[in-house]
Structure formats: C-alpha cells, structure tokens
Amino acid sequence: MFGPLKRKKVLRNQNREYKVRNYRDFTTDRDLISFKLSIGESDLLIKANRNLITVSKDLLVRFRHEIISYMLRNTFFKNSLKPVKEDEKAPEIIHKMMKVGELCNVGPMAAVAGAIAESVGSELLKYSPEVIIENGGDIFVKSRSIRKVSIFAGNSPLSQKVFLNIDARENSLGICTSSGTVGPSLSFGKADAVTILSQSTALADAAATAIGNIVQRKEDIDSGLKYAKNINGVLGAVIIKDDRIGFWGNIEFGIIENNCI
Fold it and tell me: I need a surface site. Which of 2, 154, 156, 190 has the fewest CB within 10 A?
C-alpha cells in the first residue's frame, strides 16, 4: 500500500473507513531507533540501530526518481493491471516490480510500496544490522531477534487481535497487507486483510493484492489460501474476512489480549 503513486491506490472508495496510520503500532521494537521519512507520496516509518535519516532520504529520492522517470517514459507500466514484459534497460527496482507482477498476475505497480521498502531496507543493512521499514502497511524486516507484528483489519473483530512471530534473523522478510475494506486502495475483493510473508517484500506486496482480489466472502478464504500456495516465493498467508481467519504456510501466531503483546 503506497498512496497515489501505487496503481492499486489510484481509485478511492468513499464508502470505506480509512484510519490513517493506526496500524503503525505494528511491532514490538522498543530497542530500535525510530524515524519517519516522507517524500511526495512516500511515507516511511524506519527503525534501525541508529538514526539513518540522511542516507535513508538519499535512497528514497533515488528509488522514487527511478520509478517516476520510468513511468513518465512508459505509461503502460504505470497503468497496467496485468503483468508487463520485462525491460532489459530498466533499473533494478523496475525489474523487480515486473517480475513479481508476472508471478502474481497483477500489474507491476501493485508491488511499488513493497519494492521501495525492500530496496531502501536492503541498502540500509550496510549501515545497521537491524532494519524495519513500514511503507503504508507493507513491511521489510531484518532483525537479530524475533519480532511480533499485529494485523490491522479494519472493522473486523479480529483487527489487531492476531499477531505473527516474525523470525528474520537469517534472512530479511517482507510482511505485506492488502485490504478491500480499509483504505483508498483499488481492490477487486472485500477481504478485511490479506497478509503475505515472503523473503521478497515486493513479492509479498504483489501477492497480497492478487489474493485480496479473490476474497469476496468468508467462504472465499480457502480459495485465497490455495492461490497463495501456488505463488513461488510466498512463505505464508493470513486472510481475515469479518469474523473468520485462515492461515497457510510457515506461520507462528498468537492472540493479543488487552491490546498488549
């Protein structure tokens, strides 16, 4: 989820309740230093072992410039809701978005928030052994300890009642959430939350969009989980619709009591 720059957020549904950034209490990480970075449509919450605001800004400017410049030259890239053919001359972040779009059968801009979080986060690991970046509900994590991440699911009674134990000690992980009932995102489904885990944050973002498009009713949760199983690189999935939740994959979860984890 990324704002107007992200294709799946271009259309706005005025019937939805949008709670701005309430989900940012997403993980237990009081041992890290937090700072925010906003440029244009990008609004990042970054956590690391030290304040890296200057280098983070330079990285965000660089990756945004690559994406925006490519969109201006190739309008099909910005507007397509279907996969587009990879361009050998495109920057690496564009290649990444195209590749995961093809894997998930969605347009490349469905992965833009995850791709930015992943690209900035991977570079920041040169300066800090632990990095967590949240970009509109899409999260990049590399940590020396297990982190707990709660799932925001709008008006569902399960919203922020379920947490995932995220073990990103050996490899970085992406935890991305798409919703058809919360926020201004363009979604063809009605899931309160589809959360995807992958070593690629860009892939997790694209997969969350693709699976979110499937879920119209509680009865569609199983179909969404089945779709997740067939996407190469997806490690796990959580789908919430109303008062029902479904899990698949290498997921360790718990229940939050008294709003405390």
Answer: 190
